[in-house]
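Q: Hi! First time doing this. I have a protein sequence and I read that you can turn it into a structure. Is that right? Here it is:
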Amino acid sequence: MKPVLVLLLTLALSGLGWAGEAGPLVTGESLPRLPQRLVEMILEAVSAPEWLVAIGSFAAAAGTVVGVFLGGFALLSLFERKVLARVQNRLGPNRAGYFGILQPVADGIKMLTKEDIVPTKAEWLLHLIAPVLIVVPAVLALGVIPYGREWLPVPLELGLVFFFAVGAMTEIAIFMAGWASGSKFPMLGAMRAISQMISYELPLMLSALAVVMMTGTLSLSGIVENQQGFHLWILPAWNILTPWGMVAGLVFLIAGIAEANRCPFDLPEGESEIVAGHMTEYSGFKYALFFMGEYLGLFAISGLWITLFLGGWQAPLPGLGFVPSWIWFFGKLAVVIFFFLWIRGTFPRVRIDQLMRFAWLFLIPLGLLTLPVAAVWEYSGRGTLGWLICGAMLLVPFVMLTVFYNRRLAPATRRYHFIE
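A: Yes, that's right. Below is the predicted 3D structure, encoded as C-alpha cells:
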C-alpha cells in the first residue's frame, strides 16, 4: 500500500500523467482539482468499487471548497478589521503575530475556550442546532459555483435554483435561533431579520431572472460560457456591460448586501436597538458559527454576482487566456469583497422603515423593469438601437421612481416621542 501511495504522490509532483499517457496531472488550470484526482487515483489503485470512487471524489471536491473558504474566512476577518482601521485612521489588530497575522488564530482559540451559556428557558436542542444550520446553506451554495474552467465542485443543470433553494434555509435557522433562545430580544431580532431577508430576496431573484432569460439556462457554468468573447476587440461580453445588465447587476448587488447582512443593511444585529438580534443569547463557539455563516454567505452571494454579471472565471481582457481561470475568479472576488468592506466603512446604518420602503417601493419595481428591457435588448439586435431604446426604458422609470420614492412616500420630517 505504501509504495502505491508514494508512486501516486511522485507522479503528481513530477507532473506526469497516469501511466505516462493521460497528460500532465498538475497544471495551473487543474491545480484546484488535484486533491480530487489524487483520491480517485488512490481508490482506483486499490481496486475500489465505482460507487466508492464517486463518493471519495465528491468528498475531496467538497473538502477543497470548504478548506479554501474557511481559510478565506480567517483571512477576511483580519483583513476587514485592517481595512476599517485604515478608513478610521487607526492601526487595527497588530499584537498577535507580525502585522497581526495570527489574530484569526487567537480569535479561534478564544471562541473555543469561552464558556457556552444556555439560558434556562431556552430550547436546548434547537439552541444547539441553529448555529450549525446557519453555516450549512452557505457551504452548500458554495459547492455549485463554477470557480474555473475545470473547477466546478458540483455540476448541476439547475445550479441557480439550488443556490436560492438552500439560501431559504437561512431564514429557518435565524427564526430557530431567536425562538429557541427563550427571550423577547432575540425573537424580535429574528423577526426583523426574516422580514429583511424575505423582502430583499425578491429583487435578488428578479435580477437573476433577467440573466436566465438572456442565456436560456439555469446552469451557472452555462451562464458563464454565455459571457465569453469580446466586443470591439477589447470589451468583455459580460452581462454587466449591457443596459439591462447594469441595472439588474446594481439591483442584485444592493439586495446581496442586505442578504449578507452587511452595512448599511445590518439591522438584524443592530446593537444599539436590540442588543445583538437573534444572536443575543449565544456565546462561545456557537457565536462564532453565526459569524462564520455570515462570512461564508458573503463569499457565496459575491461569487454568484460574479458568475451572473462579471463573466465568472472569464478573463477581463483579450490575450490573457494563459492565466488559470480560477485566478481570475478569485481576483474578481477579492475586488468585490473589498468593495463591501469599503461600503461598511463609509455608510451609516439605515432605519428599518427606510430599509423596507427601499426594497418594496424601489428595488422590486426596478428589478421587474429589467425583464422587459432584457427582451427589448434581445430583439433590437443588441446594438446601438438597443442601447437607445433600453436606455430610455430604464431612465424614465428610474427618475419617476426616484422622485416618487423620495418626495412623495418618504416623510419630510420625523418626530421622535420620548417618555415624559
